[in-house]
Amino acid sequence: MHYPEEYYKIKNLEIDILQIHYSIFDQRFCKIFEELKEKKIEIHARSVFLQGPVFKKPKELEGRFSKLKDKPSYINSLSKELGIPLNAIFLNFVLENENVDKVVIGVDRLENLKENIDSLSFQDIVKQLHQRLVELKETDEDIILPIRWQK
Which of 44, 70, 79, 144 has the greatest count of CB atoms below 10 A from its CB? Predict the structure, then answer.
């Protein structure tokens, strides 16, 4: 599901699981989490890393991603200041949300998988950053929705 509004078209169907976009930058579905949980719908979060651009250095962000402005710089500085990897910040932000049941991530090599598993050890630190990270949400769907990147 790409848009929270799509849920209202199917909400009367018997649904067990919804796979949705959810990340530090894409928090659009939060407004329906409570309703999904009331209906006992399992939430699987995807696009946690925005399919890669979050790992670029802020000065490397071009085109549509340059609109993120200071947000990647801020997260990079948090990463350095606290001595935790970027993936740990992004992954644990999603995992700490009690409404999220599963997280779907892509890996391109075994080392990448190990790094993501190791990042789970930073959950407590990221939990303390929660409010600061919530404030980094992005509303420009041309940035947060990979299906719109081709336009």
Answer: 144
The CATH homologous superfamily for domain 4-136 is NADP-dependent oxidoreductase domain (3.20.20.100)
CA distance 150 to 126: 32
Separation CA 78–CA 135 (nearest Å): 14
49-58, 69-78, 137-146: which range is least confident on average?
Answer: 49-58
Coil/strand/helix, residue 128: helix
Q: Report the C-alpha gap between 148 and 106 in whole angstroms.
A: 19
With 0.85 as the threshold, say if the pTM is over it: yes
CA 100 to chain centre: 11
| Rounded average pLDDT over 89-113 | 94
Sign of torsion over alpha carbons 85, 91, 95, 97: positive
